[in-house]
Amino acid sequence: MADLPDPDCIFCKIVTRDIPATVVRETDRTLAFRDINPQAPTHVLVVPKAHYPNAATLAAADPELAAALLTEAAEVAADEKIAESGYRLIFNTGAAAGQTVYHAHVHVLGGQAFHEGLV
Ligand code: DGP
To answer: Is residue 1 classed as helix, strand or coil in its secondary structure?
Structure first.
């Protein structure tokens, strides 16, 4: 639950630049980088630099930082020219949702139509 860097967390290591990523945006408290396994023409992850295991723990501990993720996600969409066409924001929370990295992140997905429904 602590917001200190977790030495076993891959996104903490991306934040500290100990492992490489294609960073597209950065603020003092957030980082946005391309997903290593893109599921759409644009697939960017926005993370808080501080470590929280998921969106719920982040929102409970620091609502302002949780909101900053959404602001940055919108900026990513504008930069990627998908703000007008439309995009999806996804927070996977827990194993059944398919969460594999337990550092809060929002997926920004766009550049294609998602006609198959809500999920
Ligand atoms: P989730 O299933 O919501 O926990 O999504 C985690 C995403 O993180 C998944 O789409 C793949 C991505 N990912 C995992 N490891 C790395 C990495 O080392 N670099 C980058 N850029 N993305 C990663």
So the answer is: coil
Kindly list the structural domains of the chain, giving each domain's residue range(s) and its CATH number in brackets, ordered by start. Answer: 10-21+45-110 (3.30.428.10)
Do 69 and 106 meet the contact criterion of CB atoms below 8 Å apart?
Answer: yes
In this prediction the pTM is 0.95
**pLDDT tens figures, 92-101:** 999 999 999 9
How much distance in Å is there from the Cα of 109 to the middle of ligand 1? 13
The pLDDT, as a whole number, for residue 60 is 98
Under 8 Å between Cβ of 3 and 61: yes
Q: Which of 16, 23, 45, 108 to mutate to test the pocket of ligand 1 (most atoms within 8 A of CB)?
A: 45
Tell me which of 12, 35, 46, 92 to substitute to probe ligand 1's pocket, judged by most ligand atoms within 8 Å of the beta carbon: 35
